[in-house]
């Protein structure tokens, strides 16, 4: 599968992503072995995140942008992080993530969000799928996520550039978005700047520009505000110019150091999630994990004391 994948075979890529998403332990092993093999061939793409509340126009935007880039002979992969909870059922982004014209383009690969699992699991699968797409020779990876808190933070930690899409006139413009999300954004894109909404979009743009000017500069890049109409395909070229400008300003060194930091924080997050998983699922540790949880809840132990004890247990297990 590796050789086919490196040649850019889309079927091999699809199969490899299916392996990564599988719950079967044999598949999991195969997936990790494959990832290890292809890792040296990853890292060559531009990684772009696009988030925004449901209905803001993310899929329309990504489809138009994707088609524009495919026409320039670039290979574009689209991945999605849909944090729908298995409890509420169904996906938030639904069928609209299919992007039919883009999917049919020979230079494009569109993969919907993994359907199950907690955000952590979906996040891991998306990160790993991204590596596979890179090994398969995709120049650009677009990651769509719906604007509901956690998933935005997760996506901003796996991409080079994080864009947040907004629509004009959604109540008080500055309340339409949490400050935290503005801080994550490298690009704010006000979509649906067409028809009656055009003036509102320009007003929103200056609101956001002044809001952003109150925030401190990010290293080498000051977040930009753009308007566009994904429906009418207006402003997408300007958006892409900003992306290219970002890569130019970042240069090889800053890009590498950003990705290094992301990989290291991902390792740290994974490690603590795996430790928790081990404690809560291992039959011989489970009961101590449960008592630690109740002890800290009833103030019988401090979390520090409980963590120390659990760590001792884990060490003893070796
Ligand atoms: N007027 C106008 N409508 C748009 C524009 N972009 C998208 N829409 C419409 O807005 C609706 C939602 O578009 P989507 O692209 O599905 O939005 P989304 O953000 O992907 O939505 P979710 O995947 O559900 O989170 C659709 O009816 C689009 O036709 C635009 O630029 N202008
Ligand atoms: Mg969508």
Q: How does the SSE layout of this entry go?
A:
Blueprint: H1 2-6, H2 10-21, H3 25-38, E1 46-52, H4 58-71, E2 76-81, H5 100-104, E3 108-110, H6 119-135, E4 140-146, H7 150-156, E5 161-166, H8 179-184, E6 187-190, H9 197-213, E7 224-227, H10 236-281, H11 286-297, H12 303-316
Helix pairs in contact: 2-3, 2-6, 10-11, 11-12
The structure holds guanosine-5'-triphosphate and magnesium ion.
Description:
The protein has a seven-stranded parallel sheet, with helices on both faces. It is built from twelve helices and seven strands. The protein has two domains: 209 residues, Rossmann fold (3-Layer(aba) Sandwich), CATH 3.40.50.300; 35 residues. β2, α5 and β3 form a beta-alpha-beta unit. The longest helix has 46 residues. It has 318 residues and is an alpha/beta fold. Guanosine-5'-triphosphate (GTP) binds next to α4.
Quick overview:
It contains twelve helices and seven strands. The chain has 318 residues and is an alpha/beta fold.
Q: What is the C-level CATH assignment of the largest domain?
A: Alpha Beta
Structural class comes to: alpha/beta
Order of helices and strands: HHHEHEHEHEHEHEHEHHH
Low-confidence stretches are 85-90
Query: Gap between N and C termini, in Å?
Result: 35 Å
**Average of pLDDT:** 88
CATH topology of the largest domain: Rossmann fold
Basic shape: globular
Computed CA radius of gyration, to the nearest angstrom: 21 Å
The CATH homologous superfamily of the largest domain corresponds to P-loop containing nucleotide triphosphate hydrolases
Number of domains: 2
Classify the beta-strand content into a percent band: 5-15%
Taking strands numbered 1, 2, ... along the chain, how are they ordered across the largest sheet? 3-2-4-1-5-6-7
């Amino acid at each position: 599968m590796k050789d086919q994948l490196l040649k850019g075979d889309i079927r091999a890529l699809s199969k490899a992503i299916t392996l990564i998403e599988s719950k079967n332990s044999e598949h999991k092993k195969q997936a990790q072995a494959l990832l290890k093999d292809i890792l040296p061939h990853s890292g060559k793409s531009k990684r772009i995140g696009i988030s925004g509340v449901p209905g803001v126009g993310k899929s329309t935007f990504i489809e138009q942008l994707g088609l524009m880039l495919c026409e320039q002979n670039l290979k574009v992969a689209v991945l999605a992080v849909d944090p729908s909870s298995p409890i509420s059922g169904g996906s938030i982004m639904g069928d609209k993530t299919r992007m039919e014209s883009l999917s049919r383009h020979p230079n494009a690969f569109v993969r919907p969000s993994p359907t199950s699992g907690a955000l952590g699991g979906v996040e891991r699968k998306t990160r790993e799928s991204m590596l596979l797409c890179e090994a398969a020779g995709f120049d650009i990876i677009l990651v769509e996520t719906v604007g509901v808190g956690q998933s935005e933070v997760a996506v901003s930690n796996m991409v080079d550039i994080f864009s947040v899409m907004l629509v004009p006139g959604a109540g008080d413009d500055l309340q339409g978005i949490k400050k935290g999300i503005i801080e994550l954004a490298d690009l704010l894109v006000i979509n649906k700047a067409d028809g009656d909404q055009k003036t509102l979009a320009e007003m929103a743009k200056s609101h956001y520009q002044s809001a952003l000017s109150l925030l401190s500069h990010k290293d080498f890049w000051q977040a930009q505000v753009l308007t566009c109409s994904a429906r009418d395909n207006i402003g997408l070229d300007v958006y892409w110019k900003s992306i290219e400008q970002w890569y130019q300003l970042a240069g090889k060194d800053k890009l590498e150091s950003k990705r290094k930091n992301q990989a290291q924080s991902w390792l740290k997050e994974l490690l603590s999630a795996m430790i928790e998983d081990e404690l809560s699922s291992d039959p011989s540790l489970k009961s101590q994990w449960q008592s630690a949880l109740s002890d800290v809840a009833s103030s019988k132990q401090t979390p520090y004391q409980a963590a120390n004890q659990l760590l001792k247990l884990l060490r003893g297990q070796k």
